[in-house]
C-alpha cells in the first residue's frame, strides 16, 4: 500500500482482503454475521469483533476463547448482531504487531430505520510508524521504551488508509460520520471546521439526546463516535475534521471540499438514534465494588506483581518484558479477576496509579461509568482513564463466558495490562 506520500516507498502490509483498512462490513441489526478467516499469513492469527455483545466462542481472543488459527488454516466466525452501531474488527493474536501492520476494519450494524442523513461515511482514523527510507513499518514492536511509556505513536496519521483523505460534499448536506480510532496507542483530539455537528452515539451505543459538538472531541484507541454533521461552510471555504498534532497545532485529518448546495438552510438538531436492546444498567448503587488499580509503567514501576503463577519483583518483571499490572496481576492469570453470576450487576473501580492514560476495554458487554455522585455516564465499551484518576464502570454481567478487560494501548496490553473476568 502507498501509505506515505508519493516519492516515498510503498509499505508492505498485512491486510484483510488486500486493503488497509480491511473492507467495511455492513450488516443489519438482528441478523447473523458469517465470515471465514483464511489465514494466509506466516503467523497464527484470530479476529476480534470489537464492541459486539457476542457469543463468547466467537470473540476471537487467542488463548482465551479460541486457539490462534495457524498459517494455512481457517476459522468460521458466525454470530448474532443484537445492536446497531459502529464497531470494528481487528486481529487479537499478538495484536500489538498485527494491528499495527494493518489487520483492522470497520463493522457497521445498520438500524432498521436509519437516521435522516444524506450520506453515511466511515472514517477509520489510524497512525503508522514508517521508516521513511524503506517504507517499512518500524518493526521493534516489543521495544521496552515504547511499551513502558505511552505506547507506539506513528509518524503519519491518516483516515481510511490515506494520509490525505478527503471527500466532497454540498453546503447544508447532512452526513453521518462514523469515527473509529484504530491506532495502536494514540489518543486523538478532534475538532470540526465548517461543520455543525452532534454526537449521536459512543462506542456504537446511541446517546439519549444528541449532544452538540462545541469543543474538542477526545477519541481514545478503540473508541468510536458517531456524529451527525451539517456542512455549514460555503462553497470554496475549508471544512473538515481536524486533529491536534503533537506540536499543538491543528492539522487536517479529513478534508471536506464544499461544492454546490444541497439545501438553502441546515436542518437543525437531529433526533436521537433508536435505542439498542438491554441498555439499562440496573441495581448499580447496591452492587459490590471490585477494586482494580492500574499499575506500573515508567517512572512509577511496581513493587511486585503476579506473572505466570509467580510473584515477581519489578526487576524480574522487566526482564520478562512486563511493565504493567492490573490489580497486582501482569498478563492473564489462571484465575479470573472476578467471577460474576449471569445477570449480576458489577462495579469495577479502576484507579490509575500510573502516570499514563489507559483506554480500558471490556469485551462482550457494554458498561456505564458511575460518577461519585452516583450518576451514570453513556454506555461504552472502552473508557479512557487519565493518570491519577479513578473511573468506575458498572455493567450487567449478562453474557456468559470469559471476557478480557484490558488496556487498548496495545503495547500496554502486551506487557501486563490484560486481565479477564468470568461470567458463569
Ligand atoms: Cu479491540 Cu481486546 O480488543
Ligand atoms: Cu495502557
TrEMBL record:
Read off the SUPFAM superfamilies from this record.
Answer: Cupredoxins
What keywords sit in the KW lines?
Metal-binding, Oxidoreductase
Sorted alphabetically, which Pfam families does this protein's record hold?
Answer: Cu-oxidase, Cu-oxidase_2, Cu-oxidase_3
Q: Which PROSITE patterns match?
A: MULTICOPPER_OXIDASE2 (PS00080)
Q: Which GO terms describe its molecular function?
A: copper ion binding; oxidoreductase activity
Task: Provide the Plastocyanin-like domain boundaries.
Answer: 3-112, 122-233, 319-423
Q: Does the keyword Transmembrane helix apply?
A: no
| Ranges annotated as spanning the membrane | none
Supply the name of the protein: Multicopper oxidase domain protein
What is the native source organism of this protein? Salipiger bermudensis (strain DSM 26914 / JCM 13377 / KCTC 12554 / HTCC2601) (Pelagibaca bermudensis)
Read off the lineage from the record. Bacteria, Pseudomonadati, Pseudomonadota, Alphaproteobacteria, Rhodobacterales
Amino acid at each position: 500500500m502507498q501509505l506515505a506520500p508519493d516519492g516515498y516507498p510503498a509499505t508492505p502490509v498485512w491486510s484483510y482482503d488486500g486493503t488497509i483498512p480491511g473492507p467495511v462490513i455492513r450488516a443489519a441489526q438482528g441478523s447473523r454475521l458469517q465470515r471465514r478467516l483464511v489465514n494466509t499469513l506466516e503467523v497464527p492469527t484470530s479476529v476480534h469483533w470489537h464492541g459486539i455483545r457476542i457469543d463468547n466462542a466467537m470473540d476471537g481472543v487467542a488463548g482465551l476463547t479460541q486457539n490462534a488459527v495457524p498459517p494455512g488454516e481457517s476459522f468460521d466466525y458466525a454470530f448474532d448482531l443484537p445492536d446497531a452501531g459502529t464497531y470494528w474488527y481487528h486481529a487479537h493474536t499478538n495484536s500489538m504487531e498485527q494491528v499495527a501492520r494493518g489487520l483492522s476494519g470497520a463493522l457497521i450494524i445498520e438500524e432498521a430505520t436509519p437516521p435522516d442523513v444524506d450520506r453515511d461515511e466511515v472514517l477509520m482514523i489510524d497512525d503508522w510508524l514508517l521508516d521513511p527510507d524503506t517504507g517499512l513499518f518500524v518493526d521493534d514492536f516489543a521495544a521496552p521504551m515504547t511499551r513502558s511509556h505511552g505506547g507506539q505513536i506513528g509518524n503519519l496519521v491518516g483516515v481510511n488508509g490515506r494520509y490525505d483523505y478527503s471527500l466532497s460534499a454540498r453546503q447544508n448536506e447532512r452526513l453521518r460520520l462514523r469515527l473509529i480510532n484504530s491506532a495502536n496507542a494514540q489518543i486523538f483530539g478532534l475538532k470540526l471546521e465548517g461543520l455543525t455537528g452532534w454526537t449521536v452515539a459512543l462506542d456504537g451505543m446511541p446517546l439519549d439526546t444528541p449532544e452538540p459538538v462545541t469543543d474538542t472531541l477526545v477519541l481514545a484507541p478503540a473508541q468510536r463516535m458517531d456524529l451527525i454533521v451539517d456542512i455549514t461552510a460555503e462553497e470554496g471555504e475549508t471544512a473538515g475534521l481536524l486533529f491536534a498534532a503533537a506540536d499543538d497545532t491543528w492539522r487536517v485529518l479529513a478534508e471536506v471540499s464544499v461544492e454546490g448546495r444541497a439545501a438553502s438552510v441546515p436542518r437543525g438538531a437531529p433526533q436521537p438514534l433508536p435505542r439498542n436492546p438491554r441498555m439499562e444498567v440496573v441495581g448499580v448503587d447496591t452492587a459490590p465494588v471490585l477494586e482494580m488499580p492500574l499499575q506500573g509503567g515508567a517512572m512509577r514501576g511496581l513493587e511486585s506483581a503476579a506473572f505466570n503463577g509467580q510473584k515477581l519483583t519489578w526487576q524480574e518483571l522487566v526482564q520478562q518484558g512486563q511493565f504493567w499490572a492490573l490489580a497486582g496481576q501482569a498478563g492473564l492469570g489462571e484465575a479470573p479477576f472476578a467471577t460474576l453470576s449471569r445477570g449480576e450487576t458489577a462495579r469495577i473501580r479502576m484507579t490509575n496509579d500510573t502516570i499514563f492514560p489507559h483506554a480500558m476495554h471490556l469485551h462482550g458487554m457494554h458498561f456505564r461509568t458511575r460518577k461519585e455522585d452516583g450518576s451514570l455516564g453513556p454506555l461504552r465499551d472502552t473508557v479512557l482513564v487519565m493518570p491519577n484518576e479513578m473511573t468506575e464502570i458498572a455493567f450487567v454481567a449478562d453474557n456468559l463466558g470469559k471476557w478480557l478487560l484490558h488496556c487498548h494501548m496495545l503495547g500496554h496490553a502486551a506487557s501486563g495490562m490484560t486481565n479477564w473476568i468470568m461470567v458463569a
